[in-house]
Amino acid sequence: MHSEEIEIRTGSSEVVRDLRDECRRFLSSAGAGDGLLNVWVPHATAGLAIIETGAGSDDDLLTALRDLLPGDDRWRHRHGSPGHGRDHVMPAFVPPYATIPVLGGQMALGTWQSVCLVDTNVDNPVRKVRLSFLAG
């Protein structure tokens, strides 16, 4: 198994951040052939999604999360920015892990699919992402 932790700057606004380039670089440096890429976010307020980006789906996902998990005062978890409790519930809907098949060193994603970090927590501008390759 080959594993590496990277830092991703998400800034001070909600974001769906495409990680394809980072995943490709990691697989190349790992000398990956066939196997599995596991992507893990060790944070209580971030998740990973396999989603199309650049055509509005990333913004649609953030809108859906705002509709489903409003940033108001209903949350019992109250430290941080107003409505921050929603950020702690979000990983139940957008989990902090993804596993992608790798064939010949390339992620076996569909044409429009991307591996994306989903971060709704504006209080935490830097995230860690653990990439692990398990050879088949």
Automatic annotation (TrEMBL):
One matching Pfam family: YjbQ
Superkingdom: Bacteria
InterPro entries with a match to the protein in the record: UPF0047_YjbQ-like (IPR001602), YjbQ-like_sf (IPR035917)
Gene3D superfamilies reported for this sequence: YjbQ-like (2.60.120.460)
Family: Belongs to the UPF0047 family.
Entry protein name: YjbQ family protein
Naturally occurring in which organism (per UniProt): Saccharopolyspora terrae
